[in-house]
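User: Can you recover a sequence for this backbone? Please restate the input before giving your answer.

Assistant: Of course. Working from this structure:
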Protein backbone atom coordinates (compact mmCIF):
# COMPACT_ATOMS: atom_id res chain seq x y z
CA UNK A 1 0.00 0.00 0.00
CA UNK A 2 1.41 3.39 -0.93
CA UNK A 3 1.70 6.29 1.52
CA UNK A 4 -1.30 8.14 0.07
CA UNK A 5 -3.49 5.07 0.45
CA UNK A 6 -2.25 4.49 3.98
CA UNK A 7 -3.04 8.11 4.88
CA UNK A 8 -6.58 7.77 3.53
CA UNK A 9 -7.17 4.53 5.42
CA UNK A 10 -5.86 5.97 8.70
CA UNK A 11 -7.91 9.15 8.28
CA UNK A 12 -11.03 7.10 7.52
CA UNK A 13 -10.51 4.92 10.62
CA UNK A 14 -9.90 7.93 12.88
CA UNK A 15 -12.95 9.67 11.38
CA UNK A 16 -15.17 6.64 11.93
CA UNK A 17 -13.96 6.29 15.53
CA UNK A 18 -14.60 9.97 16.27
CA UNK A 19 -17.99 9.80 14.57
CA UNK A 20 -19.00 6.76 16.63
CA UNK A 21 -17.85 8.35 19.90
CA UNK A 22 -19.49 11.68 19.10
CA UNK A 23 -22.71 9.97 18.05
CA UNK A 24 -22.77 7.95 21.27
CA UNK A 25 -22.22 11.08 23.38
CA UNK A 26 -24.97 12.92 21.49
CA UNK A 27 -27.40 10.00 21.76
CA UNK A 28 -26.87 9.59 25.52
CA UNK A 29 -27.09 13.37 25.96
CA UNK A 30 -30.45 13.43 24.19
CA UNK A 31 -31.81 10.73 26.51
CA UNK A 32 -31.19 7.50 24.63
CA UNK A 33 -30.28 4.54 26.82
CA UNK A 34 -26.51 4.23 27.12
CA UNK A 35 -24.85 1.09 25.76
CA UNK A 36 -23.39 -1.41 28.22
CA UNK A 37 -19.83 -0.51 27.22
CA UNK A 38 -20.35 3.24 27.64
CA UNK A 39 -18.72 4.91 30.65
CA UNK A 40 -21.57 7.37 31.36
CA UNK A 41 -25.10 6.49 32.35
CA UNK A 42 -27.36 9.39 31.44
CA UNK A 43 -27.83 12.87 30.00
CA UNK A 44 -26.85 14.61 33.28
CA UNK A 45 -23.67 12.61 33.77
CA UNK A 46 -20.45 14.59 33.18
CA UNK A 47 -17.45 13.34 31.27
CA UNK A 48 -15.05 14.07 34.15
CA UNK A 49 -16.12 14.61 37.75
CA UNK A 50 -14.52 17.36 39.83
CA UNK A 51 -12.53 14.73 41.73
CA UNK A 52 -11.25 13.23 38.45
CA UNK A 53 -10.34 16.68 37.10
CA UNK A 54 -8.42 17.78 40.21
CA UNK A 55 -6.96 14.45 41.34
CA UNK A 56 -3.47 14.93 39.87
CA UNK A 57 -3.36 18.72 39.87
CA UNK A 58 -1.41 18.96 43.14
CA UNK A 59 1.44 16.71 41.97
CA UNK A 60 4.64 18.40 40.80
CA UNK A 61 4.93 16.22 37.67
CA UNK A 62 1.35 16.78 36.44
CA UNK A 63 1.62 20.03 34.47
CA UNK A 64 4.99 19.24 32.85
CA UNK A 65 3.59 15.86 31.80
CA UNK A 66 0.43 17.46 30.34
CA UNK A 67 2.48 20.07 28.47
CA UNK A 68 4.93 17.44 27.16
CA UNK A 69 2.08 15.20 25.98
CA UNK A 70 0.31 18.07 24.22
CA UNK A 71 3.59 19.22 22.65
CA UNK A 72 4.21 15.67 21.38
CA UNK A 73 0.72 15.54 19.87
CA UNK A 74 1.24 18.91 18.16
CA UNK A 75 4.66 17.88 16.81
CA UNK A 76 3.29 14.59 15.48
CA UNK A 77 0.39 16.41 13.82
CA UNK A 78 2.78 18.93 12.22
CA UNK A 79 5.09 16.13 11.04
CA UNK A 80 2.16 14.30 9.50
CA UNK A 81 0.86 17.48 7.84
CA UNK A 82 4.24 18.29 6.29
CA UNK A 83 4.66 14.72 5.06
CA UNK A 84 1.23 14.84 3.41
CA UNK A 85 1.76 18.26 1.85
CA UNK A 86 5.31 17.56 0.70
CA UNK A 87 5.55 17.09 -3.01
CA UNK A 88 6.11 13.47 -3.88
CA UNK A 89 6.50 13.95 -7.62
CA UNK A 90 9.27 15.93 -9.26
CA UNK A 91 7.89 18.76 -11.42
CA UNK A 92 10.89 19.52 -13.62
CA UNK A 93 14.46 18.46 -14.29
CA UNK A 94 17.34 20.87 -14.78
CA UNK A 95 19.40 19.82 -17.81
CA UNK A 96 22.89 21.04 -18.59
CA UNK A 97 22.85 21.93 -22.29
CA UNK A 98 26.64 21.94 -22.56
CA UNK A 99 27.04 25.63 -23.45
CA UNK A 100 27.13 26.95 -19.87
CA UNK A 101 23.36 27.20 -19.97
CA UNK A 102 20.61 24.99 -18.66
CA UNK A 103 17.14 24.00 -19.73
CA UNK A 104 14.10 22.73 -17.89
CA UNK A 105 12.47 19.45 -18.84
CA UNK A 106 9.03 18.59 -17.51
CA UNK A 107 9.42 15.49 -15.38
CA UNK A 108 6.08 14.12 -16.58
CA UNK A 109 7.35 14.22 -20.15
CA UNK A 110 10.37 12.10 -19.21
CA UNK A 111 8.14 9.77 -17.16
CA UNK A 112 5.80 9.32 -20.12
CA UNK A 113 8.65 8.69 -22.57
CA UNK A 114 10.29 6.22 -20.21
CA UNK A 115 7.00 4.37 -19.67
CA UNK A 116 6.34 4.16 -23.43
CA UNK A 117 9.86 2.92 -24.03
CA UNK A 118 9.47 0.28 -21.30
CA UNK A 119 6.15 -0.98 -22.70
CA UNK A 120 7.77 -1.49 -26.12
CA UNK A 121 10.13 -3.95 -24.49
CA UNK A 122 9.12 -7.57 -25.07
CA UNK A 123 7.06 -9.01 -22.24
CA UNK A 124 6.22 -5.72 -20.46
CA UNK A 125 2.45 -5.23 -20.38
CA UNK A 126 2.31 -1.97 -18.43
CA UNK A 127 4.76 0.49 -16.88
CA UNK A 128 4.38 3.30 -14.35
CA UNK A 129 7.20 5.74 -13.69
CA UNK A 130 7.52 8.30 -10.91
CA UNK A 131 10.45 10.72 -10.79
CA UNK A 132 11.44 12.01 -7.37
CA UNK A 133 14.37 13.75 -5.77
CA UNK A 134 16.01 17.00 -6.78
CA UNK A 135 15.91 18.80 -10.11
CA UNK A 136 19.58 18.09 -10.76
CA UNK A 137 19.67 14.51 -9.40
CA UNK A 138 16.34 12.77 -9.98
CA UNK A 139 15.59 9.21 -9.01
CA UNK A 140 13.01 6.95 -10.61
CA UNK A 141 10.48 4.63 -9.04
CA UNK A 142 9.36 2.12 -11.63
CA UNK A 143 6.52 -0.41 -11.58
CA UNK A 144 6.65 -2.92 -14.42
CA UNK A 145 3.81 -5.33 -15.05
CA UNK A 146 5.17 -8.38 -16.86
CA UNK A 147 3.51 -10.99 -19.02
CA UNK A 148 3.38 -14.44 -17.33
CA UNK A 149 5.97 -16.05 -19.60
CA UNK A 150 8.71 -13.42 -19.07
CA UNK A 151 11.77 -14.05 -16.92
CA UNK A 152 11.94 -11.15 -14.40
CA UNK A 153 15.75 -10.94 -14.52
CA UNK A 154 15.71 -10.63 -18.31
CA UNK A 155 13.01 -7.95 -18.17
CA UNK A 156 14.90 -6.00 -15.51
CA UNK A 157 18.20 -6.20 -17.39
CA UNK A 158 16.49 -5.14 -20.62
CA UNK A 159 14.81 -2.19 -18.93
CA UNK A 160 17.98 -0.89 -17.26
CA UNK A 161 20.20 -1.48 -20.31
CA UNK A 162 17.82 0.03 -22.86
CA UNK A 163 14.97 2.25 -21.65
CA UNK A 164 16.61 3.63 -18.51
CA UNK A 165 19.93 4.26 -20.27
CA UNK A 166 18.20 6.06 -23.17
CA UNK A 167 16.25 8.25 -20.73
CA UNK A 168 19.43 9.13 -18.81
CA UNK A 169 21.31 9.99 -22.00
CA UNK A 170 18.48 12.00 -23.55
CA UNK A 171 18.13 14.09 -20.39
CA UNK A 172 21.94 14.42 -20.18
CA UNK A 173 21.94 13.20 -16.60
CA UNK A 174 25.15 11.81 -15.08
CA UNK A 175 23.09 9.09 -13.39
CA UNK A 176 19.46 8.06 -13.01
CA UNK A 177 19.10 5.66 -10.06
CA UNK A 178 15.95 3.59 -10.19
CA UNK A 179 13.96 1.38 -7.85
CA UNK A 180 12.14 -1.15 -10.01
CA UNK A 181 9.23 -3.24 -8.77
CA UNK A 182 8.08 -6.14 -10.88
CA UNK A 183 4.74 -7.90 -10.87
CA UNK A 184 3.02 -10.19 -13.32
CA UNK A 185 -0.27 -9.76 -15.11
CA UNK A 186 -3.02 -11.79 -13.50
CA UNK A 187 -4.19 -14.55 -15.74
CA UNK A 188 -6.23 -17.70 -15.63
CA UNK A 189 -4.53 -21.03 -15.47
CA UNK A 190 -4.01 -22.52 -18.90
CA UNK A 191 -5.84 -25.74 -19.70
CA UNK A 192 -3.90 -28.66 -20.93
CA UNK A 193 -5.68 -30.87 -23.45
Amino acid sequence: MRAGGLNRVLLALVGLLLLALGGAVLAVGLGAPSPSWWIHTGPHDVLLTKAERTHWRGRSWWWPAVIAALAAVVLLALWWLTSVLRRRRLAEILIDTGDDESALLRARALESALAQDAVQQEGVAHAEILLRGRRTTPTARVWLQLEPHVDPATALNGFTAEALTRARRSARLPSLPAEVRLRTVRHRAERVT
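That completes the design. The radius of gyration is 28 Å.
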